[in-house]
Design a protein that fits this description.
Helix content is 52%, strand content 0%. The chain has helices at residues 3-9, 21-26, 37-40, 44-59.
Length: 64
């Protein structure tokens, strides 16, 4: 893959918050499972941040 196509695939979510339900639902399945990196196109750092925020939202019962 070229560098340009990799950058186009990545969607930066640097300021994701556990209260941002619409973004969280965009990267989860209908059953609430977290989509893998190869599907979302996020960097490893963004994916870890995203997973933390989803787990926080689940604990607060904001997203199922």
């Amino acid at each position: 893959m070229s560098e340009q196509s990799t950058q186009e695939k990545r969607k930066p979510i640097s300021k994701l918050n556990w209260m941002d339900i619409s973004t969280i639902q965009h990267f989860t399945t209908e059953t609430g499972k977290i989509l893998p990196r190869r599907i979302t196109g996020l960097s490893a750092k963004d994916q870890r941040n995203y997973m933390r925020q989803v787990k926080r939202a689940r604990n607060m019962l904001m997203a199922l």
